[in-house]
Write a structure and sequence with these properties.
heterodimer; A: 358 residues; alpha/beta; Rossmann fold; 8-stranded mixed β-sheet; two-stranded antiparallel ribbon; 27% helix; B: 617 residues; Pyruvate-ferredoxin Oxidoreductase, domain 3; 7-stranded mixed β-sheet; 6-stranded mixed β-sheet; 20 helices; 23 strands; 20% strand; globular
Chain lengths: 358, 617
């Protein structure tokens, strides 16, 4: 049926399949204001979400995509209000389910740039299952996980990324559960693109988004985001000019993994340790290989911020090529047509054992 | 030896054996031969949820019942005329359903002391007079099969496994079934192992020849082809018909089909079937759970696909929140619920009509949606198209309530021509609809249907945001305004209620016109109710029959129909769910007849109930 091969079906495929190659480009120069919707932004004054919104709105024009081919899908939580503020298509869905809804959309519409906006509770608690499955399938999504390590919208309960012993309204004697490390979790699910950045560092945030959008398949970007009401200062160590350069380990492909005063090196047993720079020679410093197929080094890097904030890797942990889910699905559809031709309804209904009466 | 041929107008056969004995396959093949021969037919598979229960035990018994006739029939039949019992467990589990005088063909080889003990027989019933009221044919099916396959390089175990084909051959002889299609089927099924194919065919033919030569069977039976309306027919099960209906809906709506589903009995076959037809542009997505299945379908619908999710009751419970999201975002979505016995896991392979109230009300908030229920296995085809038509036209999730009885049962189906199917296509929004000519109002409404525009990503100028938070009428922006919420709740309800203008009125079948009793039903009870009504009428009783296909909204004349009878009887395989709705809505004193045994009604049982209601007039 020819009508099934129209724009909507987006069987697309073929040609270069990197990044956003299947998403139509605009010929018009875009600006940040083009991506601001007419809705009043209603986060608490001082919330880190404002910075992320501004960073995204000022970044997306450089992609040059048609605005109508961008979709922001979210779940529930403070961060999930994000789509209302983007002048694109948007779907503010239900708690935890954004990756599932976005999977259906991205799998059937390769011509769209689909973004998932989620938080630590949304993505890792109620929606944990959908997140890991979207990652393992390599659905063509940019997943921005705003991690503020607290439940904000429900007014301050501990979250699955809160540190052990967190005193909150629901844990007056301290939380008991060990937190998830979102990067480790994503790498465990064999995500093809995993990165971490910080709300207040617009340049870094945008450089990570750039790489995430160039990646075709699922990209998981953890963004440390300050909740100034219920968990203020959670990431201050990374923002404090006195110490940030010492504790931040910038991950850049092909570059040594080091902060101002520390560097990473292999241990004898194959692990990774961080030591004062003075104790290592330049040759000994581990060089970051984000494209390494084996995720174990990336995983070891994700464990370096234990204990928390002593040294924190920031940047792209892993970026490897693997066919995205929509491509694989479209390929099967195309292969089915190659094998037996397009579907013919009369032929289908008449197939098998039939008999005629009269 | 010349054998007598006796003519019958209808026969009910039940094949019963251990789960591993291949009874479903045997039944399917006998059905295919019967369909090819031109009888009308109806089937009822009945199998345990366990894939392989312990061999030879009562819980492990699997059966397949087939009713075929020289006239049109409505049910798989109440009681078998013939029981094929492959072991003592099969005999014991099914004997209670056998009327006096029925034939029992028992595989005597399996009636060993050990097997008898397993099911609590102290003596071999084939050897004492405990089966005197039936005509028992003790046939050594296993050893005859093994002997027939002596020339084949098969292990004894492999040879024994062909005994179901021997039984099929014998029954095919007994009822004059054509054999060519079964031979072709075996050749293709075992194409990769030609020796196994040949052995099965040899066993099948040996069974046939055994019937012809043995003295155990002195009579064979003939059931003439039925006189059905002219056309091309095929046999089809409810799940297959439903899958085909969804494909047809995709073609006739010109929307690519996206199925998000998670395996669950008895709905999985729809996923299996649809996943085989990718050349229709169908995307099937086996999700990580029920919630992701419906979520992905809804996401695809947002993108302009015909979004479908298929499940059974436990899955509907999990999907409820997402279905509510579809209600409030007003996106087309088809939710197929192949109902099974509940609550909770219940009895996965057994049928029930107990999800009606969940379909109606099983979501938070005022969350109305249309409900369509097919009445027979082949009707699942048309019901799927109807569900899609309503979903697409009214931008709403639609619940399609099939059940285990329809899903696995089968009947001949007059194959429609694609061109005769309704055109259910719709137009996506492509231009701004605001008064100023530049703004887009995603929650403005068609004045007649109250449907909102379906504007899909990729459409320039119509960028908009939707979500689960209450939306302002027209703009769709977040709104907590009390008046707006009240208006939106009523608009969503009015949209669904208004579908009553777009569905056929409830038809009443009352040939004499003088009935004072109406029997009404919905869904899969159609066949047993109609068969019961025939019985009552043959006996001189007057009864009218009506059957609901649309459960929400109900046809506009439903109240009028109910009120025009002195008595209204409503048989349901639940404790009175539709009765509750009809009584509440129309203040009519509906009389319920309710059984929840995991099995369809029997026509005889319903006929007696109808007669009782008539007599109590």
């Amino acid at each position: 049926m020819s009508e099934h091969n129209g724009d909507v079906n987006g069987n697309g495929g073929g040609g270069a399949r990197g990044g956003l190659s299947l998403v139509p480009k605009t010929g018009v120069k875009q600006a940040m204001k083009d991506f601001k919707s007419d809705q009043e932004v209603r986060w608490c004054p001082g919330c880190g979400d404002y910075a992320i919104l501004a960073a995204v709105q000022s970044f997306v024009p450089e992609l040059g995509l048609r605005r109508e081919n961008m979709v922001f899908v979210s779940g529930i939580g403070c961060s999930s209000r994000f789509p209302y503020y983007m002048n694109t298509y948007g779907f503010h869905s239900i708690h935890g389910r954004a990756p599932a809804i976005a999977t259906g959309l991205a799998a059937s519409r390769p011509d769209l740039s689909v973004w998932v906006i989620t938080g630590d509770g949304d993505a890792l608690s109620i929606g944990g299952n959908h997140l890991i499955h979207a990652l393992r399938r390599n659905v063509n999504l940019n997943i921005l996980l705003f991690n503020n390590r607290i439940y904000g919208l429900t007014k301050g309960q501990y979250s699955p990324t809160s540190e052990v012993g967190k005193i909150t309204k629901s844990t007056p004697m301290g939380s008991l559960d060990r937190p998830f490390n979102p990067i480790s979790l994503a790498l465990g699910a064999e995500a093809t693109f995993v990165a971490r950045t910080v709300d207040s560092d617009r340049r870094h945030l945008q450089s990570v988004l750039r790489q995430a959008t160039e990646h075709r398949g699922a990209s998981l970007v953890e963004i440390y985001q300050n909740c100034n009401i219920f968990n203020d200062g959670a990431f201050d160590a990374l923002k404090d000019p006195e110490q940030r350069d010492d504790i931040t380990l910038r991950l850049e492909h092909g570059r040594p993994i080091a902060s101002a005063s520390k560097a990473a090196r292999r241990t004898a047993d194959g692990g990774i340790e961080v030591v004062p720079r003075s104790e290592v020679s330049e040759e000994e410093i581990l060089v970051h290989d984000a494209h390494r197929a084996d995720p174990s080094t990336a995983f070891a890097l994700s464990r370096l911020d234990e204990p928390a904030f002593e040294h924190v890797p920031i940047g792209v942990f892993r970026s490897v090529e693997r066919p995205s889910y929509d491509e694989l699905m479209a390929d099967q559809l195309a292969e089915a047509v190659d094998r037996a031709g397009s579907g013919d309804l009369d032929g289908l209904l008449m197939a098998g054992d039939t008999w005629r009466i009269g | 030896m010349t054998k007598q041929v006796q003519r019958l107008d209808r026969v009910i056969i039940r094949f019963a054996g251990d789960s591993g004995d291949g009874m479903q396959l045997t039944g399917d093949r006998f059905t295919a031969g019967t369909a090819e021969f031109g009888n009308d037919l109806s089937t009822l598979p009945n199998f345990p949820a366990e894939i392989r229960a312990p061999a030879g035990t009562l819980p492990g018994v699997s059966s397949f019942q087939l009713h075929f006739a020289d006239h049109d029939i409505l049910t798989p039949g109440d009681a078998p005329n013939v029981l094929v019992a492959m072991n003592p467990a099969a005999l014991k589990a099914n004997l209670g359903d056998l009327p006096r005088g029925a034939d029992v063909i028992a595989n005597v080889d399996e009636f060993t002391r050990r097997n008898l003990q397993k099911v609590g027989y102290e003596a071999n019933p084939l050897e004492d007079d405990s089966l005197a009221e039936w005509r028992v044919h003790a046939v050594p099916l296993t050893s005859l099969t093994v002997r027939a396959l002596e020339g084949f390089a098969l292990s004894k175990k492999d040879a024994e496994r062909c005994k179901n084909m021997f039984a099929l051959g014998l029954l095919s002889w007994l009822y004059h079934r054509p054999t060519e299609a079964t031979i072709r089927f075996l050749e293709s099924k075992f194409a990769k192992s030609p020796d196994i194919a040949k052995a099965n065919i040899a066993a099948f033919q040996a069974g046939w020849n055994y019937g012809e030569t043995t003295e155990s069977f002195s009579v064979s039976y003939e059931v003439k082809p039925a006189r059905l309306a002219p056309g091309v027919y095929r046999n089809i099960s409810g799940n297959q018909a439903l899958a085909y209906g969804l494909i047809a809906a995709s073609v006739r709506s010109r929307l690519p089909l996206f199925l998000g589903s998670y395996p669950i009995t008895p709905a999985s076959d729809i996923l299996h079937e649809l996943s085989r037809h990718k050349r229709f542009g169908i995307r099937t997505f086996q999700a990580e759970d029920e919630i992701a299945g419906v979520g992905a379908a809804l996401g695809a619908a947002f993108g302009g696909a015909l979004g479908v999710t298929t499940t059974s009751g436990p899955g509907v419970a999990l999907k409820a929140e997402t279905v509510g999201l579809a209600v409030t975002t007003e996106l087309p979505l088809i939710v197929v619920d192949v109902q099974r016995a509940g609550p909770s896991t219940g009895m996965p392979t057994k049928t029930e009509q107990t999800d009606l109230l969940m379909a109606m009300y099983g979501r938070n908030g005022e969350s109305p949606l249309p409900i369509v229920a097919p009445s027979t296995p082949s009707d699942c085809f048309d019901a799927a198209i109807e569900a899609a038509r309503i979903a697409v036209k009214y931008r709403t999730p639609v619940m399609l309530l099939s059940d285990g009885y329809l899903a696995n049962g089968s009947e001949p189906w007059k194959v429609p021509s694609a061109a005769d199917l309704p055109d259910i296509s719709t137009a996506f929004a492509d231009t701004p609809n605001g008064d100023d000519g530049t703004t887009f109002l995603p929650f403005s409404r068609d004045p007649v249907t109250l449907a909102r525009p379906w504007a899909i990503p990729g459409t320039a100028g119509l960028e908009h945001r939707i979500g689960g938070i209450e939306k302002a009428d027209g703009t769709g922006n977040i709104s907590y305004d009390p008046g707006n919420h009240d208006r939106m709740v009523r608009l969503r309800q009015a949209k669904i209620d208004g579908i009553a203008r777009d569905i056929p009125p409830l038809e009443v079948d009352d040939p004499d016109g003088g009935a004072r009793v109406l029997v009404i039903g919905w869904g899969s009870t159609y066949g047993p109710i109609a068969a019961a009504v025939r019985r009552v009428r043959r006996a001189g009783g007057r009864v009218a029959q009506a059957h609901l296909r649309h459960l929400n909204p109900l046809p506009a004349n439903t109240g009028e129909v109910l009120r025009s009878y002195d008595r209204v009887l409503l048989p349901e395989i639940n404790l009175g769910q539709l009765a509750l709705l009809l009584r509440a809505r129309f203040l009519v004193d509906v009389i319920g007849h309710n059984r929840v045994r995991g099995l369809p009604f029997k026509a005889e049982e319903l006929a007696a109930v109808i007669q009782d209601v008539i007599d109590s007039e």
